[in-house]
Write a sequence for this structure.
């Protein structure tokens, strides 16, 4: 059982602050590191994997600083985001070399187990350069698992995987997490994280925006005020009916149509068709105005 | 030393286009040596001049540049160095293993090319081959160490290395008196000058005496290795593009 602790960690590159005063503790089980692109997820992972010193604060594994401590790699497995490996080698040779570099007593057995875990034994003798993106991802995963690490750090592991490979990796991560290993993976897609992670850390613009179990984060995200733009046959009459119904907080009439703000997402979505039907107003278009992930994150930060 | 790191390094180095370029450069020097022999009737002075200036002054540093940076720069560039660094192996061991491969490859390529070049262009009882072969071996060790360090320190190792190799070593160190004293090529030629003391007309000369030259060569090599190891220990890597 291992725990990664970040205490008051900041990292800046010149004038750019990539990570700003983050304190978190990542324990056994699967944790998702969620945030939009460019939020600082990769910088955080780089510091946790010992490839970048924090500019301020400490990053430790069970109390031991990770920076400049190669011995800790016996306990850490890393799945980096870049695709580049030693492309002229076969899958088997590359994973085997990784096993040897970990100074394992039986590298062949470890290689076999790792390739079986990611379902790549059948393709083990093909060159890595000729693999698809999803297969490369699995080989990367095998190199990270070959020494059975207590801690597994994965940067955007689901990128480029097809649904079947995704399900396979999800199941693998869940199994490893249930074994008591400490697993952290980054993603910018909420649905990816919710399927597997027990705990979620949300990072936006280098800051920790939210932290906790998936349900509470999901509630934060769905209970925020939602914006809609509506075009209808009679915007003015529809505006009156929506206000009278009480399912929205604010309605404004613009040249583009109605702009509606509703804090109870479920209730408004359910009420709108009913209102339209009872007032006999045709709806031409209903568009959620700010459903991008960035706006969801921005809302979380502003709280 | 770590044999797995060395094996992976050899594989990556020789698997790349660079190895074709190395053979190409070797072939170029041998072709020029052939022309010199044909044009001058195997004059040893012409042979010594060509192989000193074009061989030791230009092609040897370029070969060492390709090899010294080739063992590590592409991996730093594309991020695959992570697979070596995220292992319970001291960074120092990784650096030494890669450097050993680079030194071995450089010595084989440059010394073999130089000795063959001298043999083709013109020699007398292998004396010139021995002298220039010695100078090439010494220069190769120092150049390879320096370029290896540049590969880890600089983001554009090939550009920086080429400017140093061609401008400083190739041009300035050939003509400008002050620069001559701070040139791996001049240092490496000191033992060659000593070996050919009985043939002053061959014009194999160095600006420095043997002892200071060897001391300076040693200092440059050790300093480069030190810088390379220290830098690799704290090489910041973002595990993403």
């Amino acid at each position: 059982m291992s725990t990664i602790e970040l205490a008051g960690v900041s990292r800046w590159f010149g004038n750019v602050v990539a990570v700003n005063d983050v304190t978190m503790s990542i324990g056994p089980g699967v944790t998702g590191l969620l945030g939009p692109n460019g939020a600082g997820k990769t910088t955080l992972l780089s510091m946790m994997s010992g490839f970048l010193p924090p500019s301020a604060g400490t990053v430790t594994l069970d109390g031991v600083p990770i920076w400049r401590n190669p011995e800790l790699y016996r306990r850490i497995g890393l799945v980096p985001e870049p695709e580049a490996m030693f492309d002229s080698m076969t899958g088997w040779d590359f994973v085997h070399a990784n096993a040897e570099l970990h100074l394992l007593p039986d590298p062949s057995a470890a290689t076999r187990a790792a390739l079986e875990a990611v379902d790549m034994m059948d393709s083990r003798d093909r060159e890595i350069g000729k693999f698809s993106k999803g297969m490369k991802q699995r080989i990367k995963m095998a190199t990270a698992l070959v020494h059975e690490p207590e801690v597994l750090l994965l940067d955007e592991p689901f990128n480029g995987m097809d649904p079947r490979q995704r399900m396979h990796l999800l199941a693998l991560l869940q199994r490893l997490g249930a074994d008591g290993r400490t697993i952290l993976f980054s993603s910018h897609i909420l649905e990816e994280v919710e399927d597997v992670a027990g705990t979620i850390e949300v990072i936006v613009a280098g800051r920790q925006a939210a932290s906790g179990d998936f349900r509470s984060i999901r509630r934060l995200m769905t209970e925020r005020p939602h914006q809609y733009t509506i075009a209808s046959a009679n915007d003015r009459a529809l505006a009156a009916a929506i206000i009278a119904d009480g399912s929205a907080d604010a309605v404004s009439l613009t040249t583009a149509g109605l702009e509606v703000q509703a804090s109870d997402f479920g209730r408004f979505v359910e009420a709108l068709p009913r209102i339209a039907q009872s007032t006999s107003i045709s709806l031409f278009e209903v568009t959620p105005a700010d459903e991008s992930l960035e706006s969801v994150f921005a809302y979380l930060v502003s709280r | 030393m770590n044999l797995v790191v060395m094996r992976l390094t050899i594989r990556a180095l020789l698997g790349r286009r660079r190895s074709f370029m190395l053979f190409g450069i070797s072939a170029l020097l041998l072709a020029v040596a052939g022309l010199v022999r044909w044009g001058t009737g195997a004059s040893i002075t012409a042979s010594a001049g060509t192989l000193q200036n074009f061989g030791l002054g230009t092609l040897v540093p370029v070969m060492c540049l390709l090899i010294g940076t080739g063992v590590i720069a592409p991996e730093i560039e594309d991020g695959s160095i992570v697979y070596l660094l995220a292992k319970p192996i001291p960074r120092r061991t990784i650096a030494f293993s890669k450097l050993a491969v680079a030194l071995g490859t450089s010595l084989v390529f440059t010394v073999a090319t130089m000795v063959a070049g001298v043999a083709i262009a013109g020699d007398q009882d292998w004396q010139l081959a021995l002298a220039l072969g010695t100078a090439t071996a010494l220069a190769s060790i120092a150049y390879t160490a320096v370029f290896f360090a540049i590969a880890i320190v600089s983001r554009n190792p090939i550009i920086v290395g080429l400017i140093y190799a061609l401008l400083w070593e190739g041009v300035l160190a050939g003509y400008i008196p002050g620069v001559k004293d701070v040139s791996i090529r001049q240092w490496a030629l000191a033992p060659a000058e000593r070996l050919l003391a009985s043939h002053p007309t061959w014009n194999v000369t160095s600006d420095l005496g043997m002892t200071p030259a060897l001391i300076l060569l040693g200092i440059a090599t050790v300093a480069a290795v030190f810088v390379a190891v220290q830098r690799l220990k704290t090489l910041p890597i973002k595990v993403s593009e």
